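## retry 2 of 3
previous attempt timed out at serialization; input unchanged, resubmitting
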Amino acid sequence: MGSRVTLALIAVAGAAAFPGCKSEKKPETTNLVLRANGPDWVNGGTGAFADESGKSFHGVGIVSGVRDAAFRRKMADSRARGEIQKTLEEFLGAIEKDNPSPESDSAEKQRVQLALKALAASDAGVRIVDHWVDTDSTEYALAQLELSAFKLNLEKAPDLSARSKETVRRNADRIFDESSAEKASHSARR
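## retry succeeded, writing output
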């Protein structure tokens, strides 16, 4: 009987020691601050978006605490362009992950990676299409790059081989659609 009591105490102590083992789903956390009075693109953020006007990458630049309005706008524009670059790097990384380079030479692989980074860093086709200033003087800028303009930049990229260009071209719409759908599902949860 003593061993049964001991086993029961061990079971109770074990259950008390692991309260986190419940199957409770914790809420998703985010550092995103929704601006109720701002335009939709402010709350939509950076990413791949498809709407009635077509497919495009959006970059939202944010600057606060700068009193000089002209300088603040210039900084917001620059940050929005930087967000486009980050988005393109992720986009091209996803294509490269799904389609590893067939080149066995590590120098050739590195050349392709550098060419893709240069393509992402290109400002060609990126336009600042909107600005918004919140009541606390935080400025938001929206940069946009249409997928069709990206594909045109791809064709003009001098350092990419025809095979690399074809791989990106062949997978661009699929990866864009996946990214856009993921962005839409995150937006729907807010």
